Amino acid sequence: MSIGIALIGCGTVGGSVVDLLTTQRNRLLERTGGGHLDIKHIVVRDPARHRERPHVHTDWQKAIHDPAVNVVIELIGGSSTAKEIVLTALAAGKHVITANKALLAAHGRTIFDAARAAGTTVSFEAAVAGGIPIIKALAESLAANQITAIQAILNGTSNFILSRMAESDATYAVALAEAQAFGYAEADPTLDVDGSDSAHKLAVLAQIAFGVSPDLDAIEKHGIAGLDASDIRYARELGYTIKLLAEAWSFAGNQVSLHVSPVLLRQTDMLAQVRGAFNAIRVRGDAVGEALFQGPGAGGMPTASSVVGDLVDLACGRTSHTFATTQLWSDRDRGYRVVPSERVESRFYLRVLVKDQPGVLAEVCRLLAVESISIASVVQHEAVDGHPEQTVPLVIMAHAASAGRFRNAAQAINQLATVIGPTVCFPVAD
Amino acid sequence: MSIGIALIGCGTVGGSVVDLLTTQRNRLLERTGGGHLDIKHIVVRDPARHRERPHVHTDWQKAIHDPAVNVVIELIGGSSTAKEIVLTALAAGKHVITANKALLAAHGRTIFDAARAAGTTVSFEAAVAGGIPIIKALAESLAANQITAIQAILNGTSNFILSRMAESDATYAVALAEAQAFGYAEADPTLDVDGSDSAHKLAVLAQIAFGVSPDLDAIEKHGIAGLDASDIRYARELGYTIKLLAEAWSFAGNQVSLHVSPVLLRQTDMLAQVRGAFNAIRVRGDAVGEALFQGPGAGGMPTASSVVGDLVDLACGRTSHTFATTQLWSDRDRGYRVVPSERVESRFYLRVLVKDQPGVLAEVCRLLAVESISIASVVQHEAVDGHPEQTVPLVIMAHAASAGRFRNAAQAINQLATVIGPTVCFPVAD
After folding, report:
1. What does the alpha-carbon distance between residue A162 and residue A169 come to, in Å, rounded to a whole number?
2. C-alpha dist (Å) from residue B53 to A39, A281, A342, B77, B97
3. How far is B405 from chain A (nearest CA, A)?
4. In 10 A of CB B238, how many CB atoms?
5. Which of residues 361 through 380 in chain B touch A, CB cutoff 8 A?
6. B287 and A304: CB-CB below 8 Å?
7. How many alpha carbons fall within 13 Å on the CB side of residue B373?
8. Torsional sign, CA A174, A175, A176, A180
9. Distance in angstroms (rounded) separating the CA atoms of residues A82 and A147
10. What ipTM is given for this predicted complex?
11. What is the per-residue pLDDT across B28-38, written as a single tens digit (0 to 9) for each?
12. pLDDT at B385 over 70
C-alpha cells in the first residue's frame, strides 16, 4: 500500500528519514512491493532553517488532518507537545511511528488505547537502541520465548563517557566535555548521565517482554554522573569493566525487577567490549538461551533505518497484524509484577574511603557481616591524588547477597566516623 | 488463524519444537492472538523411538495431504527427500517452514517458484544461525538499507574447535575429538569443517541481502580441517584470533564476492570474542552502519525458538505479506553479480615452512614483490616439534593487496625447492 507521510520534527533523525526516502525511492518501492512512501508534510518550528526541503511548514494540525496523510512520524521528543500530536493523529485515524521512548514510557497505555479505539497502529522500533532492531526481535522473532532477563547498554552518551574514562584514564568531567565536543552529549546531559534515558528505554522493553507498565519511579536508577575515575581503575585491576546497564530480571515465577546502574562486567563479557556510542542488548529467553544485539544506539541514519523499517512494515501490511496480536500497553495482564530490586542477588563491588587509622577495616567488615555479606577480596589502596589527606580507599569484592543487604550495609558504613563520603556500591555481573 | 502442523523429522530440533508447542500452549495462544498451533502429524523413520509422542507415523504423503494440515515443517535436512517433501507440500497448497540451508542454497529458486505458483509461503528463520533472528533482521528490520557487507561465524562446530584450539593450545585432532565428545560435531564432521555448511548459510543470506543465487561452487571456501595449531599461536602473538568467517562484500557498485575462510581478527574485535558453539553475524548497511547479532547457532531449543517464531508469524498473518514483498529467489534482478573474491583487497597472514638455509627469506620476499605485495612484518620462528628437521616457519604479515595476488604469490612460493608444504595464506580483517 502507498503511504502519505506527515513528518513532525526534522532534526538529525528527521533529516535522515527525508534523505533516505528521497534518495532511495526505487529501493524502497521494491522493498514495499510497490507501495510509495511519500512525504506530504514536514512540520518544523523554524521553516527558515529547512529552505532546501519541500513541504515544510509549522502547522502540525494541518499536516495531520490532510486526507493524503495516513502516517504521522513523531520525532520531536519530549512528552507534552509530542503527546498531543500523537493523540491527535490517532484520533484522526492516522498510523503513528515514533522514536519517543519518554512518551511511551510515561503514556504508553493512553496512546495504545487511543490507537486501538481508532483502529490504527503505533510503531516504535527507533525508540530503543537506535538502529538495532530490538523491538521486532522481542515482539516477533523471539515470540516463542518467555524473556527471563535483559541486560542492556541503552545510553550511548554514558557508554561513550565510560569508554573514554577507561581508555584514557580521563576524569568524568573531561570525558563528558569530550562527549560534548564530539556531539555525543547534549549541552545539558542530565537525562543521559543520570540514567533516566536508559530507564525510559528499559520501561519500553519491559512492556514487550513482560507486559508490565512500571511507574518510572519504580525503576531504580543510578547514573554515571560524577563517577570516580578510581573505580574504573580498581575494577580494571580486578578484571572488570564498568558499564551503565539497564537490567530486567524475572524471578520467583512472576516477579520482575528493573534497574539502571553502573555494573562491573568481566572484561571478557561481550557487553564489556561495547565501546563508544554503541548500544547492545543481551536477552535471555527460555527457548533461545542468550542472544545479543549490538549496533549504533543513536545518530541520524541509524535511527532513520529503524523509522523507515517501520514504514516498510506498514506498507507491506505487517504492522496491523503485529499491533493487534502483541496487545502492548493493554488490559491484558501476563501476570508479572514489578518489585524492588532489593531481593535480586548478585556480587557487589564496594569502595569505602576511610581515615588511615587502625581498626577501620575491622569495623567495615563487621558491618558487612551484620548483613551476612561474605567478603571475596579486600584491597587497601594507596591514597590517591584528590582524596583528603590521611585517607585510603578500601576496595571490597563481596560474594553474592541481595541488593537490599548491600544497601543496608552501605548505609551503616556511611555512619562510621572514620568513613569519608558515601560508600560506592555497584553490582558485579559474573 | 489456527494452524494444523505436519512435522517431518523429529530429531533434536523437531523434538524441541514439539516440546515448546505442547508445554507453552497458553503462551503461544497469547502470542498468535488466539490462533492454535496444533500438531496433527509427526513423521519419523522409526516410530518405535518416539512412543511417548502422539500422532507419530512414517507416512509423509498422508501427513501432507491431511486437510487438517496447513503447514509442513521440514526438519529432516539434506536435499533429496527433503526437496520432494517440500515440493509436495507446496503443490498441495501447504505453507512450509524449514531449517534446511542446504536445500535452500541448492534449490531455492525451484522451491520459491513452487510456493508462488501454489499461493503458499516458505519460512526459514531456523536455516541460518539457529536461534539468532538474522533472517527477519535482514529481510524486514533492515529493509531500509542496502546491505554492503556480511561477516559471520555460521558454523558452531568449527567455532567450537577453533575456540578449544585457542584456549588450550590443542591440536586440530584433539579439539575435533572434544567437539565430538560434547556433541558439537558429528561422527562425520566434513560438511562443518570444510566450510560447506557455512557456504550454504552464506548463500541464503546473500539471496536476502543482494538477491543473488550463487552456484555453490562460486562460493570459494576454505575450511578449518587440519588447521595447524601453530597458526593460532602465531596469530595470537600478533594480536589476532583465527575465526572461520563466511563473508559477503559488495564493491564496484554491483559486484558481490562470497567466500568462507579462516580469517585473522583483531582480538578486540567483537567477532573474535564469540566462543564455543555460538554464531554471530555482523552486517553493514548503508543506513544503519554496523550491527551485530550473536547467539546460539544450533541446538534443539534455540533452533525451535526460530521455527516456532516462524509459526507465530504465520498465525499472526505476517508471513504472506513478507513472502510477497521480499520476492526471494525470484525473477527480480537487483543488479548484483557474484564475482570471484580474487579482486577483494585485504591484508594477509602467510606462513611458509622453509629449509633453514641462507637466501630463502630473500627468495620468498622477492616472489611477494613480484605480485606488488608489501610486507608489514616478518618473524622467523624457532623450529617446532612435529616439523621436519632443519626447517623453520616464516610468518609474514602483508599489507593490503587483492586475494588474487596473494594466491599467485603463494603458488609461486610453493614451487621453491627450499619450501616444504603449501603456504598457509589467510586474510586479515583490520
Report:
1. 10
2. 55, 37, 44, 21, 21
3. 34
4. 17
5. none
6. yes
7. 28
8. positive
9. 30
10. 0.96
11. 999 999 999 99
12. no
